[in-house]
Specification:
The complex is a heterotrimer.
Chain A (H helix, E strand, L loop, with lengths): L2 H11 L1 H6 L8 H9 L10 E3 H4 L1 H4 L2 H20 L9 H10 L6 H25 L8 H23 L4 H15 L15 E2 L2 E2 L7 H6 L6 H32 L8
Chain B lengths: L12 H29 L11 E3 L9 E3 L3 H4 L1 E5 L4 E5 L10 E3 L4 E3 L6 E2 L5 E3 L8 E6 L5 E9 L15
Antiparallel strand pairs in B: 1-10, 2-3, 3-4, 4-9, 5-6, 6-7, 7-8, 9-10
Chain C lengths: L1 H14 L2 H17 L1 H4 L2 H19 L2 H7 L5 H29 L5 H6 L2 E3 H26 L24 H6 L5 H22 L15 H24 L27 H9 L8 H4 L1 H17 L4 H10 L1 H27 L6 E2 L4 E2 L1
Antiparallel strand pairs in C: 2-3
The chains are: A mainly alpha, B alpha+beta, C mainly alpha.
Chain lengths: 261, 168, 364
């Protein structure tokens, strides 16, 4: 017998190998089932799937790509955090340093383009789910979770927009935060807000309205940068992760990838 | 004390239901209050922002027209007209961009959505719903102009208020 | 040849003005859905793809077009446009194919295979792996070829000549031209999110669950696609490539001149009614002044849902959905329809606000 094959057979009999893998190479139904069942990541999937649901021409792989892009964004984002400091003094220079002063200076590029790509794939995923009528019973609630995930994807991208602290960033946020100021009854420029007062004291003013909550101040400044940084890196990804888990769980519980009844 | 139908709990069904709801209502109120406090946590009590009052020099150092010297540092245009001096906010009343002063055309033009304002701050074109805001302007004992950005007027009716129009 | 080149560009510049552009897109949508059986064959799709690529290459020789089209920040828009076009074609053509099969009494493409089950390993996990590898290669290549956008350091004193939101919000930014921020920035996005979530609860059509079809849910696809393709994607395209300095309109081959002056003298309904028609001044009482706008808006939102029931199509919807679903649907529908209505009112009559109460910052 060829010595490599001998070695391979030996390795597979060691206690270490057997403690990790509970099955042989999945080339037969039993091991194919075990491969999916005994792996925490693969067991997101059922052991067997509808043939129509596996086809790329049916799913376009858009939901999967969106999730994969979320992983890309998480990994590149964590790496970027090693260099980026969210302060007025350093933010812009750190962004340049990420291109010029570190090896593999394309991580920010991948992160930025990945964010754009994720917005596109999440829209196309929604479009596919609509066109196949996959939101219909029993999947109504999962569609609702999906819509919220879509909104959160755009919020993730929007909060990330401010972090380079360039002209593009602050003016996009200036326009965005002034829209928050126009919230009816909740923003200082919003319709009806000026009616909310006790005597002469306004209940909603530039020190406590929706814009203030978004910017952590009355103007875009260091507190805003920090707030968007935390939202972008921790707060929204935390919520998104929870909802993704719920979304996938519901896909399984509602009957897997949709197919004709 | 104990009623016959519920000897062990000391509560009959009716009493239990009211305690049950009272418990849940209390729980919801406290949980809601706590959530509100967490929301309130995001609105700080103290702000470290630039002071809203600043001195803008001697009124005599200004010539007729729009002066841009405090545009970048204080977001204020100081305009001297035949009626007096006034301080205009550089924040467009549409969505908060900074308009550009176009001297040749004699107007402020906002690059974001095309709003135009006269030198008085009056909105005359584009989507801006109101004139540019004006800040309180006065002369202190040293003869310097003092502008207080915490006091401002929105409406055209108050333009001649002496706090906002410095006679020179 | 130059004169030909230039005159074609002139014509395209003219045709791209928002009124014509939007009208063409709406009519195109209507025709695309009506005659979908014609273009779902591979041949028309290939012709359209090649024609658009030829046009694109020709257009890229124009310096003005080139400047905007190849801006790093605008590259995702091309991916999105081609992506949406391709997947729209794919879903409709599979739907049309399924319709044919079902009309012939045969099971549709999905039904034919839905009872067959395959092992997830290897059939599904391997296609996932291939997707992941190919996509990673694509992302790395994209990152190497194009630098991520970075402009000058932030300066709150200088607004750049063109201040745009991130591209995926440009449809909303276009709406800011027609609506005040509280509607365009807060109310309409709220309605979009709530409306999307409400779709499965409003759509009572039991057909079309889990397979592509056009015939079984023509109206639903028409309405959703109108919102997605016409009111969202087409407006993003307009906002990205045809809105220049000062949010003025520029044709795709036009130089973005910062000093372009477009007179904007928009009037409110109250001004038209009291000054132009009655020839008197505006009344000082706010409610009296805005009475026409208030009546119009309350008619639109209050009376129209009931009046529309006189139309057979809406009557059928009502009978299918029932009272509560119908009213939620019709409110969503009217809010969505108010967009093109307000756009055409602005273009046709220079109308600024239907109700204008700046005293309470309440403008519609």
């Amino acid at each position: 017998m060829n010595p490599l094959r001998q070695l391979w057979n030996y390795i597979r009999k060691t206690q270490i190998w057997k403690s990790i893998f509970r099955h042989n190479y999945p080339d037969n139904p039993r091991d194919q089932s075990l491969a999916v069942l005994t792996n925490v990541f693969l067991h997101l999937h059922p052991v067997k799937t509808r043939k129509s649901g596996v086809r790329m021409s049916f799913t376009w792989c858009m939901g999967g790509l969106t999730f994969f892009l979320f992983l890309i964004e998480s990994v590149t984002g964590i790496l970027l955090m090693f260099y980026y400091r969210p302060t007025l003094e350093f933010a812009y220079n750190d962004i340049i340093a990420l291109r010029e002063h570190v090896p593999l200076g394309i991580l920010r590029e991948i992160h930025r383009w990945g964010a754009h790509a994720m917005v596109i794939t999440v829209w196309l995923h929604m479009f596919r789910v609509f066109m196949t009528g996959s939101y219909k019973p029993p999947r109504e609630f999962n569609w609702a979770i999906g819509v919220i995930l879509l909104v959160l994807t755009m919020l993730l991208s929007f909060t990330g927009y401010l972090l380079p602290w360039d002209q593009l960033a602050i003016w996009a946020i200036a326009v965005g935060s002034n829209m928050a100021a126009a919230t009816p009854l909740g923003g200082v420029e919003g319709p009806g807000t000026m009616l909310l007062k006790i005597g002469d004291v306004s209940l909603v003013h530039s020190g406590n309205d929706a814009k203030f909550g978004l910017l952590a101040g009355r103007f875009i400044g260091e507190a805003t940068l920090l707030r968007f940084y935390v939202l972008h890196c921790i707060a929204i990804p935390f919520v998104v992760t929870l909802l993704i888990a719920l979304h996938f769980w519901r896909v399984r519980k509602d009957g897997g990838i949709s197919g004709p009844l | 004390m104990t009623s016959n139908d519920t000897p062990d709990s000391g509560l009959n069904r009716k009493e239990f239901i009211s305690w049950f709801w009272l418990g849940w209502i209390t729980f919801s109120v406290v949980a809601g209050a706590f959530a509100t406090l967490i929301g309130r946590f995001l609105f700080p009590n103290v702000l470290f922002e630039k002071p809203t009052r600043f001195r803008a020099g001697d009124p005599e150092s200004y010539s007729l027209g729009v002066d841009e010297r405090y545009k970048d540092s204080q977001s204020v245009w100081i305009v001297k007209s035949s009626e007096g001096m006034y301080a205009l906010s550089t924040v467009c009343t549409h969505l908060g961009c900074t308009p550009n002063w176009l001297n040749n055309e004699g107007k402020f033009k906002c690059p974001c959505h095309g709003s135009g304002f006269r030198t008085t701050g009056l909105n005359f074109e584009g989507p801006a719903p109101r004139p540019l805001e004006r800040f309180s302007i006065a002369v202190d004992t040293t003869g310097n102009i003092v502008i207080d950005k915490s006091k401002k007027i929105r409406s055209q009716d108050q333009w001649n208020d002496p706090d906002f129009m410095l006679k020179v | 040849m130059d004169w030909l080149n230039e005159s074609i560009k002139e014509v395209i510049n003219f045709l791209s003005n928002p009124v014509i552009y939007f009208t063409v897109v709406v009519i195109a949508w209507w025709w695309l859905m009506k005659f979908h059986r014609v273009w779902v064959q591979p041949k028309p799709m290939k012709i359209a793809l090649i024609a658009s690529l030829v046009f694109l290459v020709w257009a890229l020789f124009d310096p003005n077009f080139n400047k905007e089209a190849t801006k790093p920040d605008n590259i995702p828009i091309w991916l999105m446009s081609y992506g949406v076009a391709f997947f729209f074609w794919l879903s409709i053509s599979r739907g049309a194919k399924n319709d044919e099969l079902m009309a012939a009494g045969e099971p549709n493409l999905e039904k034919a295979e839905s009872d067959k089950k395959v092992y997830t390993w290897p059939d599904l996990v391997y296609s996932e792996l291939i997707c992941i590898v190919a996509f990673t290669a694509f992302m790395v290549l994209w990152g190497i070829v194009f630098d991520a956008p970075l402009e000058d350091p932030a300066n709150s004193g200088v607004t750049p000549a063109v201040a745009k939101a991130p591209w995926y919000f440009l449809g909303l930014q276009e709406l800011l031209v027609y609506y005040d921020p509280w509607i365009a920035g807060v109310v309409l996005p709220g309605f979009i999110v709530v409306g999307l979530i409400a779709i499965p609860y409003m759509d009572t059509n039991p057909k079309g669950n889990g397979y592509y079809t056009v015939k079984d849910r023509f109206d639903e696809i028409w309405l959703f696609g109108f919102g997605f393709v016409v009111l969202w994607i087409a407006l993003i395209f307009l906002g990205t490539f045809m809105r220049g300095p000062g949010w003025n309109f520029f044709g795709p081959f036009e130089y973005w001149d910062t000093h372009k002056v477009v007179p904007m003298n928009n009037v409110n309904v109250s001004e038209i009614f009291w000054i132009k028609i009655l020839g008197v001044g505006l009344p000082s009482n706010i409610l009296l002044r805005e009475i026409v706008g208030l009546v119009l808006v309350s008619f639109y939102m209050g009376a129209l849902p009931k009046l529309l029931l006189k139309i057979a199509k809406f009557k059928a919807i009502y009978e299918k959905m029932g009272f509560v679903r119908y009213y939620i649907f019709i409110v969503m529908f009217l809010v969505m329809a108010s967009l093109p209505i307000k756009m055409y009112l602005r273009w046709g009559f220079d109308l600024k606000y239907i109700i204008s109460i700046p005293e309470f910052m309440f403008n519609i």
